[in-house]
Write a structure and sequence with these properties.
Layout lengths: L14 E6 L8 H10 L3 E6 L9 H8 L15 H8 L2 E7 L1 H8 L6 H8 L4 E5 L3 H5 L1 H12 L3 E2 L3 E4 L5 E5 L3 H14 L10 E7 L3 E2 L5 E2 L6 H12 L3 E7 L10 E5 L2 H11 L5 E4 L6 E3 L20 E3 L3 H7 L7 E8 L7 H12 L3 E6 L10 E8 L4 E8 H19 L1
Helix pairs in contact: 1-2, 1-8, 3-5, 4-7, 8-9, 9-13
GO molecular function: FMN binding; metal ion binding; phosphopantothenate--cysteine ligase activity; phosphopantothenoylcysteine decarboxylase activity
Cofactor: Mg(2+); FMN
InterPro entries: CoaB-like_sf, CoaBC, DNA/pantothenate-metab_flavo_C, Flavin_trans-like, Flavoprotein
């Protein structure tokens, strides 16, 4: 049995350099710093000179417990422009402005932060924030491509309200999600972005099938596992599209998120995105049935004790459809099977039957129930593969299971080539 916390363990007190670029979103980095320090990380903040015009050094020093400077000329005997990068387990740059991305891509070293980036032997995570036109400019896109090609993780910015009245891509991702991405990168250690170049589609959450304007048929899925899969893939360098069905979680930093409600809406989006995906992971809990008829007004109780009869029709089987009709050569399809077992068969036996029937490459079998898996941070599973391999995963975090799933996906793709 594989332990769910398998993989490279982060140091007991990971050393993080938090680089802060000179954008209005610099104030949000204070929340990221708080999350890092309160979770046990030793953090050195290295702002640019312009960042210090938005948030002063005393704030960074008070929150980190370390002196702060943007210059290479302070504390010279300690050689900070070399030592900070050499000793770090992770460098996070948030916000990473267009100017900072350009300087990093071209190897400039005109302040302490860019010197640190050139001397870092550890993973580097950039969280960009800038105006939409700056993000979409060919120069910025080329700089991002250069950094990614060299092994850096560059998240896509969030879409939303920017400075002033403008909206669009360029907003700094939520600090909570940057923190989650940093944790995922630290779990990987020096393993590097092994999913770089892959386009990944992940579905998450649970579909809801309306009965009337206020009621629906649904399930207990929270989306936690799908979001963990998306975060892990992003931290490993993949381009991620996440289709979320009724999920009340912040968007994973760097993912393109599409929101749906019903099984038919989910199918429509999956069929639209799948042709561009190298890997499709269907972790959403999709309703098997939907009401045959939708009541335009709320269904009310009658004066007698009778209850209305709800007639159901079967929803399309999205997983089987995309597995049997691959949208592109070499595409890998991963499914999830939430099983309870029955009088004759275990949950694993039922899962293995689904593996063959659906035609997927890998199937993650969860034994579920009212107090199992759904909505909980912990999980356990068995990963079964079309070739017969089986990987039991001991109870552990959904983040750890996500890493193991991606490990098995890479192994499967390697064996298939």
């Amino acid at each position: 049995m594989v332990a769910a916390d398998a993989g490279a363990a982060p140091p007991a007190r990971p050393r993080v350099v938090l680089g802060v670029g000179g954008g209005i979103a610099a104030y949000k980095a204070c929340e990221l710093l708080r999350r890092l320090t309160e979770s046990g990380h030793e953090v050195r903040v290295v702002p640019t000179a312009s960042a210090l015009r938005f948030v002063g050094a005393p704030t960074w020093e008070a929150l980190s417990g370390h002196p702060v400077s943007a210059e290479v000329w302070q504390d010279v005997p300690q050689v900070p422009h070399v030592r900070l990068g050499q000793r770090a387990d992770l460098v996070v740059v948030a916000p990473a402005t267009a100017d900072l991305l350009a300087r990093a891509a071209h190897g400039l070293a005109d302040d302490l932060l860019t010197n640190t980036l050139l001397t870092a032997h550890c993973p580097v995570l950039f969280a960009p924030a800038m105006h939409t036109e700056m993000w979409l400019h060919p120069a910025t896109q080329e700089n991002v491509a250069t950094l990614r090609r060299r092994g850096a993780i560059v998240l896509d910015p969030a879409v939303g309200r920017l400075t002033g009245a403008d909206s669009g891509p360029g907003r700094l991702p939520d600090p909570e999600e940057i923190f989650a991405a940093a944790q995922a990168v630290l779990r990987r250690g020096a393993a590097g972005p092994d999913l770089a170049g892959l386009r990944v589609l992940v579905t998450a959450g649970g579909t809801r099938e309306p009965l009337d304007p206020v009621r629906y048929l649904g399930n207990r899925s929270s989306g936690l596992q799908g979001y963990a899969l998306a975060r892990a893939a992003l931290a490993r360098g993949a381009e991620v599209t996440l289709i979320a069905a009724n999920v009340a979680l912040p968007d994973p930093a760097g993912a393109k998120v599409l929101r749906v409600g019903t099984a038919l809406e989910l199918r429509e989006q999956v069929l639209a995105v799948a042709p561009e995906a190298d890997v499709v992971v269907m972790s959403a809990a999709v309703a098997d049935f939907r009401p045959a008829d939708y009541a335009e007004a709320k269904i009310k109780k009658s004066d007698d004790t009778s209850a209305p009869v709800v007639h159901l029709v079967q929803n399309p089987h999205i997983l089987r459809e995309i597995a049997h009709h691959r949208a592109r050569p070499g595409q890998t399809v991963v499914g999830f099977a939430a099983e309870t077992g029955d009088a004759q068969h275990s949950a694993l036996e039922l899962g293995r039957r689904k593996l063959a029937k659906y035609g997927v490459d890998l199937l993650v079998v969860n034994e579920v129930g009212a107090d199992k898996v759904f909505g909980l941070p912990e999980t356990e599973a068995v990963i079964v593969e079309a070739g017969g391999a089986q990987t039991p995963v001991a109870p552990g975090s959904k983040a750890a299971l996500a890493e193991l799933i991606w490990d098995r996906v890479l192994a499967w793709r390697s064996d298939a080539t």
